Amino acid sequence: MAMHVSPDAPAFIHAAAGAILLLHIAGGTVGLVSGAVAMATRKGGRLHRAAGNVFFAAMLVMAGLGGAAAPFMQKAQWTNTVAGFFTAYLVASAWMTVRRRPGEVGLYEKAAALLPTGIALTGLTLAATSFGTEAFGGFAAVYVFAGVAALAATCDLRMIARGGLTGTPRLARHVWRISLGFFIASGSFFYGQRDVLPQLIGETPLPTALAFAPLVLMIFWLIRIRLPRRSKQPRPARLPVS
């Protein structure tokens, strides 16, 4: 990520661009580490909650700055703007899901649903206006985000209509959103920035494994939370031997 700044620009503009780049990288690094800790630790435990809060803040910094700065890069990357803001939405909505009490919904959820709805409509508009032209294929990444955004918006509207979620649906909403946001971040680094990795690592399957690890863990936890828990039955008391 390198912002386009004219050499004749004032010094404070260059300093601001450098600060944005530094914060973006720092947020991504902290997000990857804290996300891995949150995924690996016991769900609901103190360490999991602490790592999740750090992940939430770091991802908002990384995704928000990345999305806002993408149009000002040497080659404007509007797809990264969509990816950045959608990632921030996923992480924020996942975090808010567990912050809300079960069966509760508020103004945030209603306002946040506008973002995935807007992304879905943008993708539909681009597909309709560019269909049959050479530009149609150039928006492939936007169509993918638009499809997932349409799913997220539908889930938001259903949750709002129901007045909130409880039990397994509430946990599932948190898991798939936080994991998908984590996957976008890991994929952006281990694929998008693969050239910055040491050659010894970049030429191995490790970056691919790390990039897709959040998706694998997402599937695992979605299955795990839907499995019936074994109830611990008290052991029958032994009768004295006569």
Tell me what you see in this structure.
By secondary structure, the chain is mainly α. Helix content is 71%, strand content 0%. The protein is built from nine helices and no strands. The mean pLDDT is 85.
Entry keywords:
242 residues; mainly alpha; 71% helix; globular
Short description:
The chain has nine helices and no strands. It has helices at residues 11-40, 46-69, 78-99, 107-112, 114-130, 140-162, 167-190, 199-202, 206-226. Helix 3 runs antiparallel to helix 7 (167-190) and helix 7 (167-190) packs antiparallel against helix 9.
Mean pLDDT: 85
The total of beta strands comes to 0
Q: Low-confidence parts, pLDDT < 50 over ≥5 residues?
A: none
Sketch the topology as an H/E string, one letter per element.
HHHHHHHHH
Main sheet?
Answer: none
Category from helices, strands and their pairing: mainly alpha
Count of alpha/pi helices: 9
Distance between the termini: 80 Å
Please give the radius of gyration in angstroms.
22 Å
Helical content class: over 70%
Shape: globular
Strand content: under 5%
Helix-strand blueprint:
Layout: H1 11-40, H2 46-69, H3 78-99, H4 107-112, H5 114-130, H6 140-162, H7 167-190, H8 199-202, H9 206-226
Helix pairs in contact: 1-2, 1-7, 2-3, 3-6, 3-7, 5-6, 7-9
